[in-house]
Design a protein that fits this description.
By secondary structure, the chain is α+β, with helices and mostly antiparallel strands. It has 3 helices and 7 strands; from the N terminus they run βαβββαβαββ. The chain is globular.
Length: about 150
């Protein structure tokens, strides 16, 4: 079966998407009770939530926001803790890059968690300030980066 990057539309995919994000991006970082699965930004035009499955098992998430200027933002990347360090993030990154190129993007942007800088730097990302106003809330301690694709 291998890997598949699923457009999050089915109720069971939304449930897995939110469970992974809530656990890995919020609760694992001490942010209990603040994750909002009904955040309206998840379903706006130009925003594409994805679920990474490996052999049918959901293990990663991200959202790709297409800006319309040749850039896209790789948002809220998460791999379940039990699967981290096994190359799944690299697969997710490659698959999302393919999707971004299909939308006409030539540049990817990210607000990278400091704990993930090694991953991003090892996969071709470079530090680049692209919108300081993004660095609030859960992104307040992030480092902005970009990657030409």
């Amino acid at each position: 079966m291998g890997y598949e990057l699923v457009d999050v539309v089915a109720p069971e995919d939304w449930a897995a998407y939110h469970a992974i994000r809530r656990q890995e991006l919020f609760e694992a970082r001490g942010r209990h009770g603040v994750y909002d699965p009904n955040y309206p930004g998840e379903r706006l035009p130009g925003m594409y939530p994805y679920l990474l499955r490996h052999n049918g098992k959901p293990l990663g998430t991200t959202r790709l926001d297409i800006n319309g200027d040749g850039s896209a933002v790789f948002r809220l990347v998460a791999i379940t803790a039990s699967e981290q360090g096994r190359g799944h993030g690299r697969v997710l990154g490659r698959m999302v890059e393919e999707r971004a190129r299909a939308f006409g993007a030539t540049v990817l942007l990210v607000n990278a968690a400091r704990t993930a800088l090694g991953y991003y730097e090892a996969t071709g990302w470079h530090r680049h300030e692209w919108d300081e106003s993004e660095l609030v809330g859960i992104a307040s301690d992030c480092v902005q980066m970009r990657k030409l694709i």
